């Protein structure tokens, strides 16, 4: 009898020890889980804070670009690639991170919104864009598709045109915009402007809110050849070489760089610019923010922000 009692007592003590060990293990697991959860929360909170800080630093980078362009206007009314604004901002150390950026003259590119004036196609600009497409080895019929996308009417261009009927027949239907582009990324919606076409065009075109002349001091040879009648691409490259050694201070300077038979409309060219794009990269900790801002510089003071995107 006593033996049974001693056995049962010993057995109960063993069960108690096992239970105690199990409870301790569960407590340890729970504590580990809580610590892990807290660590994850703390990490997520840190990433969130770093992300917000990176976005704020990127916005501050936009103000850096505005200050640079404002100072440039006070110094000179001529814009060229030898000026401080055209230099890339080296990575600068900021608290817990870095900031880098650069500014691009958007009037060194062909403004696609020049194609339409008051809702109607501008014949001279339409010809310029066709010429640019041809120089880039792209179908000139793309000019008709873009003109229909921008103009206010529903009439098809005779070559390459696409209006509402075309877009409504797509798997995901939509209407032609019938308004100016805000950004060249919108070209993805236009008939014929596939990834390859957009990549080929990207270095040479822009979308600005009003008609703009091409700045001959910053334009590519392809854009110069497109807007200057009688100027071949090889001749345009020669002009770019001359310009990089000595920029044009006015239209007369530029005319002296051209072959005798080359001609341009006064409204098509300029030696200064009002629209610039700043691209900013901010890194805080392990978080990164990339900002793109379109700036309009008119008169004295800081340029205004046309639009700002922070990703």
What does this structure look like?
The chain is α+β, with helices and mostly antiparallel strands and 311 residues long. The protein folds into two domains: 1-108 and 272-311, GSPII I/J protein-like (Pantoate--beta-alanine Ligase, Chain: A,domain 2, 2-Layer Sandwich); 112-270, Ribonucleotide Reductase Protein R1, domain 1, CATH 1.10.40.60. Helices cover 43% and strands 17% of the residues. It has eight helices and eleven strands. The strands form four sheets. It has a five-stranded antiparallel sheet with strand order 1-2-9-10-11. Strand 4 and strand 5 (120-121) form a beta hairpin. Helix 2 (123-135) crosses helix 3 (142-150), helix 2 (123-135) runs antiparallel to helix 6 and helix 6 (221-227) crosses helix 7 (233-245). The radius of gyration is 31 Å and the shape is globular. The termini are far apart. Mean pLDDT is 87; it is low at 15-20, 22-34 and 39-43.
Secondary structure layout plus pairing:
Elements: H1 2-75, E1 89-94, E2 97-105, E3 110-111, E4 116-117, E5 120-121, H2 123-135, H3 142-150, H4 164-168, H5 195-201, E6 205-206, E7 214-215, H6 221-227, H7 233-245, H8 251-257, E8 269-270, E9 275-284, E10 287-296, E11 304-310
Parallel strand pairs: 3-6, 7-8
Antiparallel strand pairs: 1-2, 2-9, 4-5, 9-10, 10-11
Helix pairs in contact: 2-3, 2-6, 6-7
């Amino acid at each position: 009898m006593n033996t049974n009692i001693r056995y049962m007592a010993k057995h109960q003590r063993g069960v108690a020890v096992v239970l105690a060990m199990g409870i301790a293990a569960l407590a340890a697991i729970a504590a580990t889980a809580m610590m892990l959860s807290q660590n994850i929360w703390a990490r997520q909170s840190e990433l969130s804070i770093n992300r917000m800080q990176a976005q704020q630093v990127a916005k501050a980078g936009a103000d850096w670009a505005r200050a640079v362009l404002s100072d440039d206007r006070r110094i000179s009314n001529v814009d060229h690639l030898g000026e401080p604004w055209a230099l890339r901002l080296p990575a600068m150390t900021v608290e817990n991170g870095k900031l880098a950026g650069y500014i691009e003259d958007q009037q060194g590119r062909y403004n696609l919104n020049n194609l339409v004036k008051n809702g109607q196609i501008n014949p001279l600009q339409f010809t310029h864009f066709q010429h640019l497409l041809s120089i880039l080895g792209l179908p000139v019929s793309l000019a008709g598709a873009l003109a229909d996308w921008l103009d206010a009417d529903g009439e098809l261009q005779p070559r390459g045109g696409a209006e509402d009927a075309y877009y409504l027949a797509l798997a995901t239907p939509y209407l032609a915009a019938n308004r100016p582009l805000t950004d060249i990324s919108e070209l993805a919606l236009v008939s014929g402007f596939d990834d390859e076409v957009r990549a080929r065009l990207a270095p040479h075109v822009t979308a600005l809110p009003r008609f703009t002349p091409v700045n001959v001091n910053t334009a590519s040879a392809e854009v110069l050849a497109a807007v200057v009648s009688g100027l071949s691409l090889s001749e345009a490259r020669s002009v770019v070489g001359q310009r990089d050694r000595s920029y044009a201070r006015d239209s007369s300077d530029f005319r002296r760089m051209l072959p005798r038979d080359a001609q341009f409309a006064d409204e098509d060219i300029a030696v200064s610019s009002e629209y610039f794009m700043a691209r900013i990269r901010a890194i805080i900790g392990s978080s990164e923010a990339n900002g793109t801002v379109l700036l309009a510089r008119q008169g004295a003071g800081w340029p205004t922000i046309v639009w700002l995107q922070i990703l």
